[in-house]
Amino acid sequence: MGAFKAYDIRGIYGKDIDEDLAYRIGYFIARLLSSPFVVVGRDIRLSSESLHNSLVQGITDSGTDVYDLGLATTPMVYFATVFLKAEASVQITASHNPKEYNGFKISRSGALPVGGESGLKDLERMTKEEEIIISERKGTIKDCSYVKDEYISFLRPYASGLEDLNISIDCSSGMSSLIIKSLLGEERHYINDTFDGSFPAHEPNPLEEKNCKEIEAETVKNGSDCGVIYDGDADRVMFIDEKGNFIQPDYITAVIGKYYAGKGIIGNALQDIRTSRSTTEYLGNLGYNVTTWKVGHAFAKLKIREIDGVFGGELAGHYYFRDFFCCDSGIFASLLVLSVVNGLKKEGRTLSQLIEEIIRYANSGEINFRLENKDEAINALYSRFVDNDRPVRVLDFDGYRIEFDSWWFNVRKSNTEPYLRIVAEARTEELLNEKLDEIKSIIGRFN
User: 95 catalytic, yes or no?
Assistant: First the structure.
């Protein structure tokens, strides 16, 4: 697989991603998006500064100006795209991937994503095939690091009233450290809150259980009401309850629904195709009309605009907000969830008690299978459960979600990794295990 993916450009630095590619992306992006200037930010990965320099050189050699944010979270780049009325922006990051990775997230006017079907394929072709002719008029570089303070000012109202909460926070040695203390103050229990692009404590991917062990222990040790862990570029966030238990991220979508319902804001909500029925039913009971859609920010940001959604959430810990230009932000999401936890605390209740109210089904979480014959395995599962049984609903826009009265499962191919992914859910643990055994047996034939 090359560096150009369905959602962004990403790969191993020195193999899939290098300074030459960064330069070419920079040179052609202004032409792709017809933009007089490009907003640029970067994370703290060890290769990001060098890639940044080459990207900026490519942009200015095309005759286009650069509005340089310097170090930035990915959501800060989204904010800057809207704030500066930019028609193009690039964040240099590999998000939650290990230290040897890097990449580019590209947005257009309004912070709309540029994905595979909305420009990335054209950009890939341009970088491979088209000639570079350096402009006689070189672009200029404008220091826009002041946008960080504007972004903090935008977020600050959502952080008010949380002074009495006891919070443990893992910044994963990544970009959340740039602004989180300005919002929640220094007097919290922070860990891994120093920039380090080698990510010495753990990989910046909180969806992997091993990377949450430290924050789980810290939350219990500190007697915290809630633990929070951000990924490397702070566009994702996950939560630990007061008992030290990791909360499956799609349940947090329900918690965010509770936040907005408490403000009297009810309307449309978005969930991805892997989301638990527990979340769907909880949101439905609050009065939301829930739309199910494809996995990935390039799809979610367009869909939430289309349905005029109040918010949306994904199993991977991305949360989208109408209040934030229909973009995802780990820090924005965490402030809303902490507000709910604060309200629970005032009622003498805990986060774990709320999660127990939300969960009504046994859920497998996402299970990954590494195999070559993914399409054949998907077709075999479809044949077994659709052709032979009678599902009540089949969704076919991101793999398949095949639903029955008492259980359902989703099978899909990863857009970024060589995996087949399964999520299953049932009314009882026994039924879930029975169905999972059958699913695994079918997939096993294609290993």
Answer: yes
